[in-house]
Amino acid sequence: MDELIIAGRSFRSRLMVGTGKFSSNAEMAATIAASGAEIVTVALRRVNIDDRQDDLLNHIDRTTCLLLPNTSGARDAEEAIRLARLSKAAGCDPWIKLEVTPDPYYLLPDPVETLKAAKILVKEGFIVLPYINADPVLAKHLQEVGVATVMPLGAPIGSNKGLKTRDSIAIIIEQAIVPVVVDAGLGAPSHAAEAMELGADAVMVNTAISVAGNPALMATAFSQAVIAGRNGYLAGLGKEQHKAVASSPLTGFLREEQS
């Protein structure tokens, strides 16, 4: 089976989903189930991670999903590290989605503070999945310090614009020694398929699913698109051509009829 491997752990699904912007926790739970996702992110600022009966956490089946706390809202490395440590102290697995976004308008990740936090968290034993700009140089530096994945954005968070950073993500994929997860900006199943066809190992989707008219159905569509895109990549996509190339031979049959 073509499984996703992160930090030695296997996952059948290559779609990760979030927990924000749903109309209710019940809708969120149904959508996660429909997605087939096995990694679900939750913002540490939104929940009481110490309380297993927290309503949001109570709607996530932790027997089938890895709960991936994220440091959303952290403005610098210090805040991100503090949130990660709180998660670990509460008994969560030492997995953390590292997000450092000081800019409240575009929510673009801070590369300097992200790298700073990653170095410290990796040394403390965390499995770090950093959200980054589609910067191949930063991606290499993060891999050198021992992160488990790199998660470059396709477009700004929640923008639904798709794979606007395609060329840079292609370079990151080419140079990667850890899984590459395209995170943020994917607004349609076709965007997810495009990322997977490019060679991404997985995609992370929240807004496009949670704000859809039918979130569960949209989650199913994204799941199917991820599978299709991955299969297309594995099959080997044909190269683009600058001129038409006939799929059937255009020579031979006329001469055969005349003979």
UniProtKB/TrEMBL annotation:
GO cellular component terms attached to this protein's record: cytoplasm
Q: Where in the cell is it found?
A: Cytoplasm
What's the superkingdom here?
Answer: Bacteria
- Which residue intervals define the domain Thiazole synthase ThiG in the entry? 6-249
Say if the entry is tagged with keyword Cell membrane.
no
Under which pathway is this protein filed? Cofactor biosynthesis; thiamine diphosphate biosynthesis
Provide the catalytic activity annotation.
[ThiS sulfur-carrier protein]-C-terminal-Gly-aminoethanethioate + 2-iminoacetate + 1-deoxy-D-xylulose 5-phosphate = [ThiS sulfur-carrier protein]-C-terminal Gly-Gly + 2-[(2R,5Z)-2-carboxy-4-methylthiazol-5(2H)-ylidene]ethyl phosphate + 2 H2O + H(+)
Q: Where does 1-deoxy-D-xylulose 5-phosphate bind?
A: 158, 184-185, 206-207
Q: Name one GO molecular function term.
A: thiazole synthase activity
Task: Recite the UniProt keywords alphabetically.
Answer: Cytoplasm, Schiff base, Thiamine biosynthesis, Transferase
Q: Which EC number(s) does the record attach to this protein?
A: 2.8.1.10
Record-annotated active site: 97
Pfam families associated with the record: ThiG
Q: Which GO terms describe its biological process?
A: thiamine diphosphate biosynthetic process
Give the InterPro entries listed for this entry: Aldolase_TIM, Thiazole_synthase_ThiG, ThiG
Family statement? Belongs to the ThiG family.
Partners and quaternary state? Homotetramer. Forms heterodimers with either ThiH or ThiS.
**What is the stated purpose of this protein?**
Catalyzes the rearrangement of 1-deoxy-D-xylulose 5-phosphate (DXP) to produce the thiazole phosphate moiety of thiamine. Sulfur is provided by the thiocarboxylate moiety of the carrier protein ThiS. In vitro, sulfur can be provided by H(2)S.
Cross-referenced HAMAP family: ThiG
Name of the molecule in the record: Thiazole synthase
What organism does the UniProt record list as the source? Trichlorobacter thiogenes
